[in-house]
Write a structure and sequence with these properties.
Elements (H helix, E strand, L loop, with lengths): L2 H24 L6 H15 L4 H19 L6 H18 L3 H27 L2 H5 L1 H9 L6 H4 L5 H17 L7 H22 L2 H8 L2 H13 L1
């Protein structure tokens, strides 16, 4: 995958993520409508590739306004990752040289790898995750709209134990998948399915498009390094 292709794909996917979140916010009475209407409009322009060197900085400024308005990334990990991607893409578009632009996209790829690895490392040193109890609690006490059938999974200790270790093992070994084309492709498909399942079952829909927006950078970086 070429640098230009990776950059454009990431912009499209990030545009979808921002558009989705903006439209959700417009349905909430306590949110500032003008700001999210502006972000939605900018997201559409980004999706269609209209003046990204102007649209990306504009989205970055509105993101800073949201950080000030809500005293931080109130939606947690999805907002943090989205801002990281937006910062890297903006830097890549405004970079004075190709080398600096590639450095911006490469940094995003490294952060994506770390996002999975650190998440797995934090879980695996936690006794409740190793026993499966933490995942059981997710099903049992989640504040998200989990169906009663899914809540019943919390009463299946063998399943939650196996699922916990599957998630932890995948996240911890994720950096190793970067070494080969085939393993990275498989890992990204598994990761995408994982985020999609979380969106379907737990309502964590913002994570899906946000994390996918960083995948082209990782694919490009692998091609770039192996090509050397």
């Amino acid at each position: 995958m070429s640098f230009d292709t990776a950059l454009r794909l990431s912009e499209i996917l990030l545009g979808w993520a921002i558009l989705q979140a903006s439209l959700e916010h417009l349905r909430m009475p306590h949110m500032p409508p003008p700001l999210f209407m502006l972000r939605a409009a900018l997201a559409v322009l980004l999706i269609f590739g209209v003046a990204p060197h102007l649209v990306l900085p504009s989205l970055f400024i509105t993101s800073l306004a949201l950080l000030h308005r809500f005293q931080g990334p109130y939606n947690g990990g999805a907002d943090k990752m989205g801002l990281l991607i937006l910062t890297c893409l903006t830097s890549a578009r405004l970079a004075p040289t190709l080398a600096w632009a590639e450095l911006s996209l490469g940094y995003l790829a490294v952060q994506l790898i770390l996002s999975y690895f650190i998440s797995g490392q934090i879980k695996i040193v936690n006794a409740e995750w190793r026993s499966g109890r933490a995942l059981a609690d997710v099903f049992a006490y989640s504040a998200y709209p989990v169906s009663e059938d899914l809540r019943a999974i919390s009463q299946r200790p063998y399943f939650t134990w196996a699922a916990s270790w599957a998630v932890m093992a995948f996240e911890v070994i994720f950096p190793l998948t970067f070494l080969w084309f085939s393993t990275l492709a498989i890992a990204l498909i598994i990761a995408a399915c994982f985020h999609l399942s979380n969106a379907i079952f737990f309502g964590l829909n913002r994570f899906f498009w946000t994390w996918l927006a960083a995948y082209p950078a990782l694919i490009w970086l692998q091609n770039r390094l192996i090509g050397l």
